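thought: user wants a sequence for this fold. calling inverse folding tool.
action: design(structure=
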């Protein structure tokens, strides 16, 4: 087995790393590790690299232009363990009703949040109505938003119907997602035929897209990281968007592929508790920064350290899952018949950093849910005033904050 070593230029301790390189994935370890915490600067909170071990794994995954992807696996493990603990805790809420609540809202959340992350002016209310009409056999409107929602519903139905991840099925999925849309650019038999620029990054040359997709599928199907399925799904998400096989809709396809990997490889119901697009939309600025920094690293021709991307995705999922668990803990302090609107608003507030000490008024709700009627806004404000979860400050407008 070829061994690749990396040395920190600031004399920091060397770290165990997983290298996606020349059709292999290798998790490498080093014998001389400083016992003190590494001072290697990382962008996420859990920066103690522990439990060093050697665990070689082989896959058929390569990278663009021969630049290796690096993953410091031991930096990820604390985040992975924390995330799994939260998911297990959420699963245990089944009898309390939260798990059922999560699952019922999953499809609506995924569609609405994924579209909003792309700048589409969608809403949960509209998504719910389109799905209701679709399932009832009612004639759907022909506007672009209705098509986007209907197509996304078909795409989610496709990946949840025991479909294997193959090149042909990926193409079928893309066809479902873009059916009858006016802004879809024509492409070749399977993928784009021209080159593209994504922000400041140049996409994979069109001549090797099929090869790269096949390598990604081989990685997904391999035994690599099979006991770390969320990590595997995150890497697959990034690699797909890095390949950028189409002219448009690659972000949505990347998120759907992420879910697809979880559905096909994870334990029952695990994926239903990961509100993927809702999490990403709630922390979109953080994710955009992550992509930009990886692009900068590629331009500098340095190793592409996926630890930054994987770690930040884990943090996003941890923060969002924690918000749902906090909501469960707050259930007893909610009005007995708390509306879905209040629950959604509470999740949004719990996902906002620093929300605990910040004052809001009902305009915050109106801004987040512009299609809801004044009656709904008034009802939510009344629920907030009746709840012991919030501290109220009388005035015009009435203000409130989480206790």
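)
observation: tool returned 403 residues.
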């Amino acid at each position: 087995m070829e061994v690749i070593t990396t040395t920190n230029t600031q004399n920091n301790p060397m770290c165990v790393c997983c290298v996606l390189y020349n059709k292999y994935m290798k998790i490498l370890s080093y014998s001389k590790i400083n016992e003190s915490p590494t001072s290697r600067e990382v962008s996420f909170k859990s920066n103690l690299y522990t439990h060093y071990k050697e665990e070689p794994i082989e896959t058929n995954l390569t990278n663009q232009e021969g630049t290796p992807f690096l993953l410091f696996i031991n930096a990820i493990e604390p985040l992975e363990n924390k995330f799994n603990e939260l998911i297990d805790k959420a699963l245990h809420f089944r009898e309390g009703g939260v798990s059922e609540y999560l699952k019922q809202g999953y499809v609506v959340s995924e569609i609405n949040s994924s579209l909003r992350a792309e700048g589409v002016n969608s809403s949960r209310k509209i998504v719910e109505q389109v799905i209701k009409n679709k399932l009832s056999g009612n004639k759907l409107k022909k506007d672009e938003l209705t098509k986007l929602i209907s197509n996304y519903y078909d795409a989610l139905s496709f990946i949840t119907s025991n479909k294997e991840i193959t090149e042909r099925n990926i193409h079928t999925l893309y066809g479902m997602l873009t059916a009858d849309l006016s802004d879809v650019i024509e492409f070749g038999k399977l993928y784009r035929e021209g080159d593209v620029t994504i922000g400041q990054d140049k996409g994979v040359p069109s001549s090797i897209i099929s090869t790269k997709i096949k390598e990604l599928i081989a990685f997904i199907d391999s035994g690599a990281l099979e006991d770390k399925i969320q990590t595997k799904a995150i890497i697959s998400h990034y690699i797909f968007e890095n390949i950028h096989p189409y002219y448009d809709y690659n972000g949505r396809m990347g998120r759907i592929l992420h879910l697809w990997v979880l559905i096909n490889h994870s334990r029952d119901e695990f994926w239903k508790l990961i509100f993927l697009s809702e999490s990403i939309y709630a922390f979109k600025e953080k994710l955009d920064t992550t992509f930009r920094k990886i692009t900068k690293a590629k331009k500098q021709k340095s190793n592409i350290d996926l630890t930054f991307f994987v770690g930040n995705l884990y943090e996003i999922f941890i923060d969002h899952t924690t918000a749902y668990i906090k909501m469960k803990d707050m259930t007893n302090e909610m009005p007995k018949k708390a509306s879905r609107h209040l629950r959604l608003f509470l999740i949004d507030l719990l996902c906002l950093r620093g929300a605990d000490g910040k004052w809001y008024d009902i305009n915050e709700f109106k801004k987040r849910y512009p299609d809801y009627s004044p009656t709904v806004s008034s009802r939510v404000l009344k629920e907030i005033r009746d709840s012991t979860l919030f501290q109220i400050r009388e005035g015009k407008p009435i203000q409130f904050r989480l206790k």
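thought: summarizing for user.
answer: Here is the designed sequence. The domain at 76-326 is CATH 1.10.3290.10 (Fic-like fold).
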